[in-house]
Design brief:
Radius of gyration: 22 Å
Distance between the termini: 32 Å
CATH superfamily of the largest domain: Nitrogenase molybdenum iron protein domain
Low-confidence stretches: 1-19
CATH architecture of the largest domain: 3-Layer(aba) Sandwich
Mean pLDDT: 89
CATH class of the largest domain: Alpha Beta
CATH topology of the largest domain: Rossmann fold
Length: 432
């Protein structure tokens, strides 16, 4: 079992990182990249925010990507769609702004349940310089207060797929109401069941009021101001975090709530900010942590000693590597991540095993060469690499599954372990 008392205490609100912070020097790679674009974030965002609609302004390729990723049939009336740029738009023979306004008005007339409309930019809309910010202003003047129109870019030219969530939440920050009152704001898209679990724990600890961002309805905007303490639930919302800090909020630095250890440290950061007595914290948290550790114990024999290589894709790689190494005994060969944002994952870097290789960015061919030299037992990678690597004989796990699967918190710790045990179990059965 993990000794929770061995974790370094999380800095309080406004405190700097500890002077003893480990200096992790990453291998920086620049070259071929293999990632999904930020449009993919719509798939989980539209499920979370039940009164929001995401309208991609893009090509048929964009439409096919979202439709395939979401697996939603046309007659299911999903809360996303694509305003397809035609040859006439690209050639300048039609006024794309007028066409976009017409499509939005028709959409909202047909879907009166929509309270927030996101205009999502894509590679094609950015190439032709279609100004979606101006379009949002124009439509707000026409549609407020019944519908609020926001915009963000989901273009994959320079981003990875989880940054779609960051861009969407960042677009909402300017319209959040102001409040000086003390509150806890949990930032990052979480499954409803996990949100409910955390609410119960915060209530038991006497921490509150607590708001989650995004909320289940996009129109339920949490207030923000100098009394707001931000607890990050996802490591890829860096721009949102910085926008909230600019509004006066203070970030509570902590590891992410993955596994028993990470969840306890995450909750402890909030408890320290609210001056929760240590005895009360232990009374509430220890039974939950011990139950999670017992559940994890079933998976440790399957994963302990197995060698792991994480290719950059989701920005969840560093917290996942910490969890697998410290709580399940896996050996880390390389931990690759698209971007190494130390403001977001500094506490996680401190908990990685000494000397582990961390890489930032991607040069696909070089990373694949290192992977083949290392011959790992399990490789975490993007969807486009999994099948070719499986054909070469490597066991793989899609990193995108970590975003779609509820994995945060005590009750999901064993589910997270099973995500990595499953491909190894499948491989062992195929060898028989």
């Amino acid at each position: 079992m993990t000794d929770l008392s061995a974790l370094p205490p999380a800095p309080g609100a406004g405190e700097c990182a500890p002077a003893s912070r480990r200096a992790v020097i990453p291998l920086r790679e620049r070259g071929q990249r293999e990632v999904f674009c930020g449009l993919t974030g719509i798939v989980w965002l539209h499920r979370k925010m039940q009164d929001a609609f995401f309208l991609v302004v893009g090509s048929r390729t964009c439409a096919h990507l979202i439709q395939s990723a979401a697996g939603v049939m046309i007659f299911a009336e999903p809360r996303f769609g694509t305003a397809i740029l035609s040859d006439r738009d690209l050639a300048g023979l039609a006024d794309a702004n007028d066409e976009l306004d017409r499509i939005c008005v028709e959409l909202l007339a047909r879907r009166p349940d929509i309270g927030t409309l996101f205009l999502v930019g894509s590679c094609p809309s950015e190439v032709i310089k279609l100004d979606l910010a101006k379009a949002a202003e124009r439509l707000n003047a026409r549609l407020l207060p019944r519908v609020r129109v926001l915009n963000y870019s989901g273009s994959g030219i320079e981003t990875t797929f989880t940054q779609g969530e960051d861009a969407a939440l960042r677009a909402m920050v300017p319209v959040l109401p102001h409040s000086d009152a003390q509150q806890l704001l949990v930032v990052g898209c979480l499954a409803d069941v996990i949100e409910d679990q955390f609410r119960r724990v915060f209530e038991a600890l006497g921490i509150g009021p607590v708001a989650f961002f995004p909320a289940r309805r996009a129109g339920d905007l949490p207030a923000v101001g100098p009394g707001t303490r931000v607890l990050l639930a996802q490591p890829f919302n860096g721009e949102t975090m910085r926008a909230l800090v600019a509004r006066g909020a203070q970030v509570l630095e902590a590891p992410y709530p993955l596994g028993a250890e990470g969840t306890s440290a995450w909750l402890r950061a909030a408890a320290q900010a609210w001056d929760v007595p240590a005895q009360r914290f232990d009374e509430v948290v220890q039974p939950l942590a011990e139950r999670a550790q017992r559940a994890l114990a079933r998976y440790r024999p399957r994963l302990e000693g197995k060698r792991l290589f994480l290719l950059p894709d989701s920005q969840l790689e560093v917290p996942i590597a910490r969890f697998l190494a410290r709580e399940l005994g896996m050996q880390l060969i390389e931990v690759g991540t698209p971007y190494l944002d130390r403001q977001m994952i500094g506490a996680e870097l401190d908990l990685l095993p000494e000397g582990v290789q961390v890489s930032e960015g991607q040069h696909l061919e070089r990373q694949l060469d290192r992977l083949r030299d290392a011959q790992p037992d399990l490789t975490v990678c993007g969807l486009g690499l999994a099948n070719p690597l499986e054909a070469e004989g490597y066991a793989t796990k899609w990193s995108i599954e970590l975003v779609f699967t509820p994995i945060q918190g005590y009750d999901q710790a064993a589910d997270l372990a099973e995500v990595f045990a499953r491909p190894l179990e499948r491989r062992s059965r195929l060898k028989v």
